[in-house]
UniProtKB/TrEMBL annotation:
PANTHER family: CHAPERONIN. One of its GO terms (cellular component) is chaperonin-containing T-complex. InterPro entries: Chap_CCT_beta, Chaperone_TCP-1, Chaperonin_TCP-1_CS, Cpn60/GroEL/TCP-1, GroEL-like_apical_dom_sf, GROEL-like_equatorial_sf, TCP-1-like_intermed_sf, TCP-1_chaperonin. This is CCT-beta. One of its GO terms (molecular function) is unfolded protein binding. Keywords: ATP-binding, Chaperone, Cytoplasm, Nucleotide-binding. It is found in: Cytoplasm. SUPFAM superfamilies: GroEL apical domain-like (SSF52029), GroEL equatorial domain-like (SSF48592), GroEL-intermediate domain like (SSF54849). Gene3D superfamilies: GroEL, GroEL-like equatorial domain, TCP-1-like chaperonin intermediate domain. Belongs to the TCP-1 chaperonin family. Molecular chaperone; assists the folding of proteins upon ATP hydrolysis. Known to play a role, in vitro, in the folding of actin and tubulin.
Amino acid sequence: MAIDRILKDEAMEEKGERARMASFVGAMAIADLVKTTLGPKGMDKILQSTGRGQEVTVTNDGATILKSLHIDNPAAKVLIDISKVQDDEVGDGTTSVVVLAGELLREAEKLVAVKIHPMTIISGFRMAAECARNALLQKAVDNKDDIEKFRSDLMNIARTTLSSKILSQDKEHFAKLAVDAVMRLKGSTNLESIQIIKKPGGSLTDSFLDEGFILDKKIGIGQPKRIENAKILVANTAMDTDKVKIYGARVRVDSMSKVAEIEGAEKEKMREKVQKIIGHGINCFVNRQLIYNFPEELFADAGILAIEHADFDGIERLALVTGGEIASTFDNPESVKLGHCNLIEEIMIGEDKLIHFSGVAMGQACTIVLRGASHHVLDEAERSLHDALCVLSQTINDSRVVLGGGWPEMVMAKEVDELARKTPGKKSLAIEAFSRALSAIPTIIADNAGLDSAELISQLRAEHQNEGCTSGIDVISGSVGDMAERGISEAFKVKQAVLLSATEAAEMILRVDEIITCAPRRREDRM
């Protein structure tokens, strides 16, 4: 008995077969969970938190689904991690990466069952991944030099990305929004300057792209409603010190008039501060904190538009967009960079009034206003649009494009299969397994659309034996279709990231042969 007692009481340890089983099963369960959201006919999931708010999220973005799961299985956590990284890195392909890793493990499990060592499988997978990547590289197209063609590539990528999301009904409209927004960025992948404002009401097709910047605030009372050639000072400073605050201030005085004097002094201080701010020669003052009515009055008298309580993202973005800096002291006006824009006015969206800054210094900036039936729809629309924007901004940097619809997977599977035939030894079994895992992606896309996947995939494989074949699965007509004709394309970078992350994750899980769970900390009884 004494030998088992190395670990503490409740710690558990699983060795060899059992540990491997646990990791395989966990990883495959996760893959099966998000499998059904893959492809244009993928379904959505409702995630309901049991917390206080009972919040409900409706989504089919792989990363969002997995992020919200609380999971005990260590292998499943690895998969969740890769989908998060995929989301941060390229923005799209979060489902594909998990599904591919899951399929690789499914194949690996069969190989382990016939007594092939995990290390052999891993080295086979390595070779296969390298080969698949080269196959993709050769087939990728780059239209960077031809602006028209490149733009149509971008439109196709946006349409393809959006077609598996809630926006698929209006994908033309949103693809155009996304491409316009990203084209304005002129190659930077900084999505900060694209602002997305969600306003319930209207339908999704009422969404629009607005160059310039929209701040979700109302214009104060008695202030100019419209300013041309605005010089903007963006600040983060307290503008509420013109009264003695009751809380925490102890003032011992012998008469009420003394209190009035103190208040007078505070008011003077405030007036000086306002004078300093006005001395910058500005006509719009945006503050992150609140502005009391006294300084607001002073600003209104000077004809300066004062906006209070702008949220922090709004302020940072506004400073970025207008080319100003956020100031908090106003003693030396020459060192403060002011923001500029041509016109500030109030606009109405739905019920709400917002402030619109147009003609801003940074031409990249724009705002996408999303309209939709409910908050759930809007959140999901924002996620989908964010995916599209990420992919497009990555594509502008790395402009290689491949076709979509299961085409890249079939191309890779074919090459990998040929490699397996040439490779001697047990590795070849692993390489063959890799190619089977790759062709599982088009299989799942077809399954989700309710098509006969076995039939379609075998047709597809036959067609891919011809050189320069462009067929993939056309879910709309339910048959094998020409992807180049249908304009279904994806960014090369996304596909490459999916391939490499999935392989690495599968490798990592394969290497496991022991799982040790440490004992939970005991709570002392304080009663």
